[in-house]
Amino acid sequence: MINISDHVFFAYDQIQHRCVAGAILSNSNPKRGLYLALFGVRKSSQHRGLGTKLLTAIIQWAYQTRNRFIYLHVHVKNFKAIGLYEKVGFRKVEYIPDYYSQTPKDKPDAFRMTLILR
Ligand SMILES: CC(C)(COP(=O)(O)OP(=O)(O)OC[C@H]1O[C@@H](n2cnc3c(N)ncnc32)[C@H](O)[C@@H]1OP(=O)(O)O)[C@@H](O)C(=O)NCCC(=O)NCCS
């Protein structure tokens, strides 16, 4: 898939000389909301607080750039990601059945989660 987005964040490991985490956001929402379209940490770098660090940096930047909220979709069984999002302040606002129906997931439902910035 080739796509265009507004903001890309990544974490670069200077010892391993490679990108270890990344996030893609778009600001297409007219109410000054940001959509976190993609967020992930390389498997070998997980469980070390990197996801928390990257997401916290994104939230700080979103505040400074006067955005009102950040929203995202997450698979209902992605307990780790949901736990991380809730830890930094996101809340579940909608349950969306069949959101991932185009992908081979056993239960294709999602939560929409939102973090209000001000
Ligand atoms: C989700 C993901 C980004 C987390 O990255 P990470 O660097 O391992 O996360 P961190 O080490 O910073 O934070 C872990 C936090 O997740 C939460 N968490 C971890 N395991 C959990 C579990 N089993 N249940 C609930 N929450 C959990 C906790 O809040 C934890 O924080 P704590 O250690 O202070 O308690 C990473 O697992 C990943 O890339 N997964 C695959 C891609 C993905 O699912 N992306 C999200 C798509 S919406």
Automatic annotation (TrEMBL):
Molecular function, one GO term: protein N-terminal-methionine acetyltransferase activity
Listed InterPro entries: Acyl_CoA_acyltransferase, GNAT_dom, N-term/lysine_N-AcTrnsfr
Catalytic activity of the protein: N-terminal L-methionyl-L-threonyl-[protein] + acetyl-CoA = N-terminal N(alpha)-acetyl-L-methionyl-L-threonyl-[protein] + CoA + H(+); N-terminal L-methionyl-L-lysyl-[protein] + acetyl-CoA = N-terminal N(alpha)-acetyl-L-methionyl-L-lysyl-[protein] + CoA + H(+); N-terminal L-methionyl-L-alanyl-[protein] + acetyl-CoA = N-terminal N(alpha)-acetyl-L-methionyl-L-alanyl-[protein] + CoA + H(+); N-terminal L-methionyl-L-leucyl-[protein] + acetyl-CoA = N-terminal N(alpha)-acetyl-L-methionyl-L-leucyl-[protein] + CoA + H(+)
Record keyword Acyltransferase present: yes
E.C. numbers: 2.3.1.258
SUPFAM superfamilies assigned: Acyl-CoA N-acyltransferases (Nat)
The protein's enzyme class: transferase
Pfam families: Acetyltransf_1 (PF00583)
Domain N-acetyltransferase: 1-118
Name of the protein this chain belongs to: N-terminal methionine N(alpha)-acetyltransferase NatE
Keyword terms: Acyltransferase, Transferase
